[in-house]
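Quick one, tokens below. Sequence please?
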């Protein structure tokens, strides 16, 4: 007797990644990362040293600072003021923005069509995450890339 197997279409919720295995799979897959909200070395903090650690681990970092209009490069890479000026497209957009500021980047992220959006530790936005997931973009929220990279190295 043959069992009837009903195939279900993937849900948009499948793009909301939470498991450590999913996170590590993403870190193995992506290569080019646009960091919205990156800060220069002189300011420091997680919005500088996390992308720096990623660059040291072999990721290509494309800086997209929100402030610092006089800065021309960060981590030795020329800065962009928008995802629209980045070509070829990045694999992942990493957000270092306060949760309330995340929605202002939604349209440009959707237009750029990265495969992943990563909201750094302490950053969650359910409505933006849902819209990204419904567009087929994998979303990671409230996790630190540096912590996850350190987990890989253990």
């Amino acid at each position: 007797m043959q069992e009837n197997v009903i195939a279900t279409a993937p849900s948009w919720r499948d793009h909301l990644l939470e498991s450590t295995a999913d996170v590590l799979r993403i870190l193995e897959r992506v290569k080019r990362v646009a960091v919205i909200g990156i800060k220069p070395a002189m300011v420091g903090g997680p919005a500088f040293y996390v992308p720096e650690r990623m660059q040291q681990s072999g990721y290509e970092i494309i800086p997209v600072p929100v402030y610092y209009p006089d800065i021309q490069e960060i981590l030795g890479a020329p800065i962009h003021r928008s995802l629209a000026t980045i070509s070829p497209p990045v694999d992942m957009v990493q957000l270092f923005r306060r949760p309330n500021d995340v929605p202002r980047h939604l349209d440009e992220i959707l237009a750029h069509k990265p495969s992943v959006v990563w909201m750094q530790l302490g950053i969650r936005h359910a409505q933006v995450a849902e819209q990204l997931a419904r567009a087929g973009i994998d979303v990671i929220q409230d996790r630190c890339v540096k912590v996850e990279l350190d987990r890989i190295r253990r």
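The chain has a mean pLDDT of 93. DSSP finds five helices and eight strands in the chain.
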